[in-house]
Design goal:
The chain is α+β, with helices and mostly antiparallel strands and 158 residues long. It has one domain: Trna Endonuclease, Chain: A, domain 1 (3-Layer(aba) Sandwich). The strands form 4 sheets. The protein has a 5-stranded mixed sheet with strand order 1-2-3-10-11, covered by helices on one side. The chain has a 3-stranded antiparallel sheet with strand order 4-7-12. Strand 2 and strand 3 form a beta hairpin. The protein is globular and about 55 Å long.
């Protein structure tokens, strides 16, 4: 039960942090009154954006034999958690994903960037945001892929 309460607190604090960051940009922010595929509505005056907020968990770096390993990273699953179980989020349910890694590290990513390469009707299952030094040279490309969306709360940039 304690884990469930802590998870809900992380989720709620992530939502409020994102709402505050959009409000600081001068946008009107609202929340839906019923369960739906997004967590916040952001009104820019020219468009209304449906925003899905996800809290990213931190995973430590690890080494494997022969010098291979994984970098330290934040990871977020693009899943919906309901009493009936988990299911993947759908492309048409929201316009922006805000992945909250830390208070000063929030990725604001358009849904079009999250579409699966193998099935255009689905989103990718999870995202990873690499941080710090990397064990492998090919991880530098993965780290820079999402950097343009880091703290991009000005929606004209998206």
């Amino acid at each position: 039960m304690t884990g469930d309460i802590q998870a809900r607190a992380r989720w709620f604090s992530a939502e409020m942090l994102v709402a505050a960051r959009f409000a600081a940009q001068g946008y009107v922010v609202g929340t839906p009154l019923t369960l739906c595929g997004y967590d916040l509505l952001v009104d820019t005056g020219q468009a209304i954006w449906r925003v899905q907020v996800k809290h990213a968990g931190f995973k430590e770096a690890r080494m494997r034999p022969k010098g291979r390993g994984a970098s330290a990273r934040y990871a977020v699953g693009l899943l919906r958690h309901r009493a009936a179980g988990k299911s993947f989020l759908a492309c048409h349910e929201f316009d922006l994903l805000c992945a909250v890694c830390a208070a000063d590290r929030i990725y604001v990513i358009p849904v079009g960037c999250l579409v699966s390469r193998t099935d255009a009707s689905r989103l990718v299952g999870h995202l990873e945001f690499k941080v710090g030094d990397s064990f492998r040279k090919d991880h530098s490309a993965a780290r820079t892929r999402w950097e343009p969306y880091l703290n991009a709360f000005t929606l004209s940039e998206v």
